[in-house]
Amino acid sequence: MKSRFVASALICCAILLSACATPKKMAFHEETQKSADQAQPVFLMTVTLKNSYKTSYQPKLLVVHVEKEGAKDSSERINFMIDDKAKQETDSADRGNSYLLRMELDPGLYQIVGFTSLAGSFPIRGIFFAPLLAPLESNGVGVYYLGHVAATVRERQEEEFRAGGVIPLIDQAVSGASGGTFDIEISDMFVDSESVFRSRFPALANVAIEKAVLPPFDRAKAQQWWEAR
Fold first, then answer.
1. Model confidence, pTM
2. How far apart are CA 118 and CA 172, in angstroms?
3. 123-144, pLDDT tens digit by residue?
4. Is the CB of residue 58 less than 8 Å from the CB of residue 51?
5. Nearest partner of 168 among 127, 133, 130, 136, judged by Cα
6. Nearest C-alpha neighbor of 99 from the set 77, 82, 114
7. Distance (Å, rounded) from C-alpha 128 to C-alpha 52?
8. In contact, 144 and 102? CB cutoff 8 Å
9. Alpha carbon distance 65, 63 (integer Å)
10. At 150, which helix (H) or strand (E)?
């Protein structure tokens, strides 16, 4: 029994730290950084993950997956790792868990592929993936607000994309990852988010933040992407 859970943990680590992507820290992770670095654009967004299907298993965000257009190797696939500064976790079935994301990207065309999260504790841990597949252009300098992503797990109907894989069978089923799907909404919550970002990250205190809210979530695109994998 113990070996099964060890295997599950190793699978999770392999997904997150595999050679197919480059781990990267989020902007402003260092306390000593007092002002925003204008050498490259920084993109801000907030994310809330919630499980309304299996409410005892609220996902906690681990990685934001970003890819450069036409990515061919690990250097063009980026795993932004969640740090303590990003977390606004509550473990509340009503509110879920929220995060403050800060992504610094070289100039180019990108896609925010989605979010990997983990829910539960020993002996049951579910691995979730919320697809976003949102286009993003990094150009010039400055700080940009991309909006708020609300990703909520509900029970899956028919052939809808799953909220996670099916293996390990018990963990994924009990947590709702394999039997659930994500409903995803992108909204403009700049008024509420701006003050939170500025108060938590001194580097943003006196920096102009421009709005560049992502387009609405395309569920058909996500379904097609999932079916092709």
1. 0.90
2. 10
3. 999 999 999 999 999 998 999 9
4. yes
5. 127
6. 82
7. 14
8. no
9. 6
10. strand 143-155
